[in-house]
Amino acid sequence: METKPLEKKGLLTKLKENVDDHEEQMAILGAAVRLGVVIWSGFIITLNYVELPMVKKSGTSADITFVASIFTGALATFGLSTGNGKKNGNGTTTTKPKQ
């Protein structure tokens, strides 16, 4: 008897086989992309503050405003937010009223 060698399946092929609904596939893929953006931007922000022994930093620090806004936006898609308000004694968060 002849047996065929097992073919290596990619991530997208496994996703298509395990999840039948197209919208569920897109939701899973979208969550993976958003998670990748959060990890990437968090890594870039961390590199701005951490000194690595093998990497020389320039005398001035880089402007990470753009990366920080991407990080905040990607976190917001997961329902997380950065701390913009003040905490009361009972643990609730209050924000300043807009004027």
Describe the structure.
It is a single chain. It contains three helices and two strands, in the order αααββ. The protein has 99 residues and is mainly α. A two-stranded antiparallel ribbon has the order 1-2. The model has no long low-confidence stretch (mean pLDDT 78).
Descriptive terms for the model:
99 residues; mainly alpha; two-stranded antiparallel sheet; 49% helix; 4% strand
The rounded distance between the terminal residues' Cα atoms is: 80 Å
Average pLDDT reading: 78
Low-confidence stretches: none
Query: Helix and strand string, N-terminal first?
Result: HHHEE
Q: Kindly estimate the percentage of residues that lie in beta strands according to DSSP.
A: under 5%
Using the alpha-carbon principal axes, give the shape.
flat
Give the number of helices. Answer: 3
Helix/strand/pairing category? mainly alpha
Please give the largest β-sheet: 2 strands, antiparallel
Residue share in helices? 40-55%
Number of strands: 2
- Rg (CA only): 22 Å
Name the strands of the widest sheet in spatial order: 1-2
